[in-house]
UniProtKB/TrEMBL annotation:
Residues 3-56 form the Inner membrane protein YgaP-like transmembrane domain. The lineage of its organism: Bacteria, Pseudomonadati, Pseudomonadota, Gammaproteobacteria, Oceanospirillales. Keywords: Membrane, Transmembrane, Transmembrane helix. Pfam families: YgaP-like_TM. InterPro entries: YgaP-like_TM. This is DUF2892 domain-containing protein. The chain crosses the membrane at residues 7-25.
Length: 62
């Protein structure tokens, strides 16, 4: 897998997990869902994503 596939996998997993946590634990978990969405939105304009920076440091292939 390349770095973009890892990014999509991580973002999707966090969105699903936080949505389930909001339904079954506490609605405040929706803030995490919104945070992920906001990061994806800003990365479309700034061409910078914090998770991609972290994945590069971990040695994930481009």
């Amino acid at each position: 897998m390349n770095i973009n596939e890892y990014l999509r996998l991580i973002a999707g997993t966090v969105v699903i997990a936080s949505t389930l946590a909001a339904v079954y634990v506490d609605p405040m978990w929706l803030w995490l869902t919104g945070f992920v969405g906001l990061n994806l939105f800003q990365s479309a304009f700034t061409k910078w994503c914090p998770m991609i920076t972290l994945l590069r440091r971990l040695g994930v292939n481009e």
